Amino acid sequence: MSGRNTDAFDDASVAGSNGAANGGPGGIGNSGNGSRRQASQKQVEKIVLQYLKTKGYRNAEKALREDAIMDGAETTIGDLASVFPASEMGSDANVPEWVLFYSEAEQGNPDAYSQSYRELRRWTDSSLDVYRHELYAVSFPIFVHAYLDLHMRGLHEKAAEFMEQYSRDHVVHHGKDIETLTTLKTKAHVEENALAKLYRENKYGIRMTRVGFELLLSFLQDHHFTLLMRTVNQYLNIRTIDGAVQIASESEADVGITGHTQNQLDHFNSQDIALGSAPLDPFVRDEVERTLQSEAGRHIKDSTTEEASALLDTFARAKQDSTTNALSARDAIPMPPPRGVEIEQQIANLKALRKRVALSPAALPSVCMYTLHNTDNTMNCATVSEDLSLMAGGFSESYVKIWSLKREPLRGFQSNFVPNSVNSEEDMEAVREKTGEDSRKLIGHSGPVFGVDISFDSKYLLSCSEDKTARLWSLDTMTNVVCYRGHNYPIWDVSFAPQGFYFATASHDRTARLWSCDHIYALRIFAGHLSDVNCVRFHPNAKYVVTGSCDKTVRLWDVQRGSCVRVFTGHTGSVDTVAISPDGRIMASAGEDQTVNVWDLGSGRRMESLTGHTGSVYSLAFSQEGTLLLSGSADETVRAWDIKRTSTASDHPIIAQRQSEQEQSKATDPDAMDVDSDGKSAGNIAGSPGKDKADTATNGDSKKRDAAGIWKSKRVAESDALLKTWRTKSTPVYSVTMTKRNLGIAIGAFTL
Question: What integer pLDDT is reported at residue 300 of this predicted model?
């Protein structure tokens, strides 16, 4: 990586100082009735022009002549000296010192820092995604020195207001420094505080791309923000590099201040969070136990009574475990009174628990693949219900399509039925359509549908669209029930809470929002990402929401407080999917960088990076024990990963066999890298950055088929945690799910 050190603006700071003379918006260049008199704009422009001419800076001189309208005789330093008392500058002051003194005089406006920083912040928010992160990094040292300068000038109330208004922008990565700086109240505190002295006596290292640096320089010059330019010139050491700028680690000496922790994310991620399971409602618990006891106590002994007895024992163990790890009533989110469906669902979960297949590296799950044909590259998303009775997909033609996996007809209501006449199940059955097919379209959106989700009881479906709305559909009546509006831009993803009732959306407006089915407005707005929020999922206890974004980070949000409690950094591309283990302790994320990162939610630290995919990863799913992870990708594969591996996992026969195959391949072809578990090379898909998965899957320039129709492309190294790869012929995998019995479900659309 090449780079050069840019000690702020060098000569450009002088050439750009005509901005100081021109004055900035909001009165930055006007001190009003301050104690110091100011030189006229024309005088300073002429002096700067004379200086540039003397030094031979012809390009800067030409630019200044074009921007400024010169009239009258040339102004000399003597003319400028007549404006200010000699005691303030000295008799031997040169032109740069006069210009510097003029910018000092600007600071008579107590709101200058707040106004200029607010404009910088607004400009950064509206900048391109590729540069926004590095511009935010620059804004932190500017924020610190603006705050310290206000104290040094005796504007302590303005400094406190400045800290209160803008500190939240930097609390995630610099929380400890913010806490310390907030305690400063006077000029003496700044002069004595070790952290303040560290910032004022050292230059803060920053990495920026060349384009990003030029954009910042142009912005400060065009808006005449001389105060900010002086801060950058005096306290920042900007190093321009080629390529993208990543979040700096603490070991990089050229970032931040040497010897001082630059990225304080661990401090932010040390907040207490409650990861226990959601408490079981007492009414549901008692009703489930009563129902099972009633069936087990029947006089006629058959398979039903035996199963009920076994379920009763299973429920007793599950109840004990949930009592040990459950959240307190104070921490749990409020839920509506339970209905009969919760009792039925709890019994169904107990039956699935008894029949669950225990997974291990030696006992991998079966994966059922649903391939959709004739979608014409218009399918954007897909999902299945928990009971595997329904499958739904969202399409670019603005509709949602539902399939019955049991081949049962999906019947809606007749067009002429009267809602008031439906008072019982018999009345509802009478007004249903007499015939139906095993698939059905739900029409209501006015833009492409990007996300769908089905409730735990398969009674409702949520969809989100480019039309900025989320819609709730009844799967009993096949009609749209509610339309939720609130986002300002397209909505990319939607997700039901595990217990239903609540749901969350992720949008292009850089926010995620919490909703409840009985309110048409959002209950919480989760704002903090620097770019699009691509995906959203609930924690199993529904107390937290996880979001992934184009800003290459994942965040964990507290539902009740609406605040961010964890930030996960480490991806090098957009995060498109997240998943949380059923026990709520581990989270996995993946996206455009083709890497699956596994995180510990408690500490906020990355446990492992899993490599092997050669295309964007669209979907992740944990097994019910949380020991195995499935991933579906644009590289047309489903892969299984071992998450909680033991120290002897590398000795397992399956892993040992795959490593032996890799070593044999390398011996045959010394230039080859690792290969997949089945010996086939992996592809590197150059997908488009858009939200349409079909486009991403078909626009791979680096992929070619051989005579047998198999993809041939570059090979990549694979992690030892990779257990197995299931390949499709030509079907990017949009969605993967693990059922309660640990059966893998994958969905994709066939492409040519």
Answer: 54
What are φ and ψ of residue 436, in 5° steps?
A: -165, 165
pLDDT digits (tens, 9 = 90+) for 356-376: 888 888 889 999 999 999 988
Q: In terms of Cα–Cα distance, which of 438, 468, 463, 443 is closest to 452? A: 463
- Confirm if 147 and 539 have CB atoms less than 8 A apart: no
DSSP label at 579? E
The rounded distance, in Å, linking the Cα atoms of 658 and 75 is 80
Q: How confident is the model at residue 279 (pLDDT cuts 50, 70, 90)?
A: confident
Name the least confident of 184-193, 219-228, 678-687. 678-687
Question: b/e for 602-639, b at 16 or more Cβ within 10 A?
Answer: eebeeebebbbbbbbbbbbbbbbbbbbbbbbbbbbbbb
Cα–Cα dist 263/622, whole Å: 31
Take residue 705 and report the two structure tokens written for it.
């088929």
Total count of residues recorded for the chain:
752
Q: How far apart are the first and last CA of the chain?
A: 39
C-alpha–C-alpha distance, residues 166 and 158, integer Å: 12
Q: 653: which 2 tokens? A: 């026969």
Q: How far apart are CA 715 and CA 683, in angstroms?
A: 7
Please provide residue 471's backbone torsions phi and psi, each rounded to the nearest 5 degrees.
-125, 140
DSSP β-ladder status, 399-404 and 722-727: unpaired
The secondary structure of 166-216, three-state, reads HHHHCCCCCHHHHHHHHCCCCHHHHHHCHHHHHHHHCCEEEEEEHHHHHHH
pTM > 0.70:
yes
**Contact indicator for 727, 637 with CB cutoff of 8 Å:** yes
**Strands of the sheet with 367-372, listed across from one edge:** 367-372, 744-749, 733-738
What single-letter DSSP state applies at residue 619?
E
Residue 392 forms beta bridges with which residues?
383, 402
- Residues 57, 338: Cα–Cα separation, whole Å: 78
User: What secondary structure does DSSP assign to 465-496, as a single string?
Assistant: ETTSEEEEEETTTTEEEEEEE--SS-EEEEEE
> What is the side-by-side strand order in the sheet with 502-507?
491-496, 502-507, 511-516, 524-527
Q: How far apart are CA 87 and CA 141, in angstroms?
A: 33
